[in-house]
Amino acid sequence: MFPKYDVIVVGAGHSGCEAAVAAANLGSKVLLATMNMNTIAQMSCNPAMGGVAKGQIVREIDALGGYSGIVTDHTMVQFRMLNLSKGPAMWSPRAQSDRMLFAAKWREMLEAHPNIDFWQEMITGIVVKDGRVRGIHTGMGLEIESEAVILTNGTFLNGVIHIGEKQFGGGRAGERAAKGLTEQLVELGFESGRMKTGTPPRVDGRTLDWDKMETQPGDENPSRFSYTDTPLPEKQLPCHIAYTSKAVHETLKTGFNRSPMFNGRIQGIGPRYCPSIEDKINRFSGRDRHQLFVEPEGWNTCEIYVNGFSSSLPEDVQYNALRQVVGFENMKMFRPGYAIEYDFFQPTQLRPNLETRLVKNLFFAGQINGTTGYEEAASQGLMAGINAHLAIQEEEPLILKRSEAYIGVLIDDLVNKGTKEPYRMFTSRAEYRILLRQDNADLRLTPIAHQLGMRGSEARLERVRAKEEAMKKIEKYFRNTSVTPDAMNGYLTQHQSAPLKQKVKMVSVLSRPHIKIEGMRAVLPELDHFLATFDPESVTLAEIGMKYEGYIKKEQELVEKMNRLETVRLQESFDYQSISSLSAEAREKLTQLKPRTIGQASRISGVSPSDISVLLVHVGR
What we know:
The protein is an alpha+beta fold. Among the domains are: 202-337, Elongation Factor Tu (Ef-tu), domain 3, CATH 2.40.30.260; 465-549, Arc Repressor Mutant, subunit A (Orthogonal Bundle); 567-618, GidA associated domain, C-terminal subdomain (DNA polymerase, domain 1). 36% of the residues lie in helices and 18% in strands. The strands form 5 sheets. Strands 1, 2, 6, 7, 8, 9 and 20 form a 7-stranded mixed beta sheet that branches. Strands 14-15-16-17-13-18 form a 6-stranded antiparallel beta sheet, with no helix packed on it. A 4-stranded antiparallel beta sheet has the order 11-10-19-12. Helix 6 (246-253) runs antiparallel to helix 8 (315-322). The relative contact order is 0.12.
């Protein structure tokens, strides 16, 4: 009935979709298995992509040939570039999406791919022979063969939904939990645990008083996520901001005795940086109010997502508390918020290519690895899809360095340190933030995609080369062209910058604080005429390169220093237990995780700098 597939992807959320596309775009024949074809790429929580550090990840996915950025651009209802008041390392794109259009666009692109087939059914197990995965078992008793399997089960593994004192099995509202896989993986020797996440109520926008809330419009000149020619939004929907109050908090507290969080029914650990509303008022009892972001679900629906009001309190408590929020006095609720517990597997059981250590060619990606967020899941799916294809071809895996991508930071953190709570990406997790900006992801990663042979990467690489050439020309112009005091001093004085006393090169003026190319163009017609021949992205990249040249060079020097440790290989068979001068914890962790390089060993929790020095001696360095 079934052909033998190169790669089978189990689960069609953000991680599964990117995994299927990545393997298929490299030439693998892929089967995407899901319990429900109607919920492919569903945005289970907030209808948005990107944000601080997450926006950088979406751009990296796009630069490597993934589809998340393209889908977002086609379905966004609002775009905002966050943190523009800070340095460029912090600039982060974020877009509100039309929830229904987002899923529909993903399905359209997947179904258009000649290398992707689909199967709708619960997957209850994997086929393992001689320590290698050989396919999957379905709920109807079918066995489908493959060379590799990627598990992207999200919150479905033995999922349990909590609303007040009620609890019932489910992987998402209205959908059943997945049974069987966890039990088999534990029998194979994998360590599992429980985590928790939650979602807020959805309400009827027709019943809200928008005039009582703060309006949050999109950017005047919205950008895009993808480096391809995706459409720019011609119109945007506003979001709004509301606030809780003491009265709201007191109403919520009346349900604490029925809260599954506080009475012990929820055992899983929730996301630290996205707490429920009851957790917020419990942990931050001194605060009189908390911000709520009131976000539209799409162009053609009145459904509203109340971001910041995630809750597992009884539905009557949620309803009564929300109605006390200013602007929500006549609110009608579509459905209450809920918490969900689900199984995950400690990611320290994975190799850096996301392949499991226990079963060859079996890969884990997404929330099964203890992460939270669409973007984190999608990036893992992309890397698992690439590496599953490479494993089948018996080629070297693609392992991105921490200095190459936020995706590299994410996976390196997971496999070396594991996680005790849902892992979320922040800019603070990356040591090389000025190198890993959202604007240069294509320069960093598109050459890698092209080298892999990713479908469509030829045209993308040509764009990158053209952009690099444009940057060089702009930088050359600024370094070789002088400006006079008469031309610049009015602009400099206006921005509290010392006036010029003689002619200087343009680059020295641009390097000053608060001075921007845009302002210089306004007072230098010849500069404006020169730059008009270049695309805005190249101009921005050149400006950042010149303005932050010293910082960039400093980080590059740190990268080169660390890369020297990355070149010192460690054999998987290395006997750490025989080295008595290593600490006991280091011997235990190194034996368990089997790092590939000294650099990777240095990032394992419990391995100290003195342990690294001992290892360097033992490998002849």
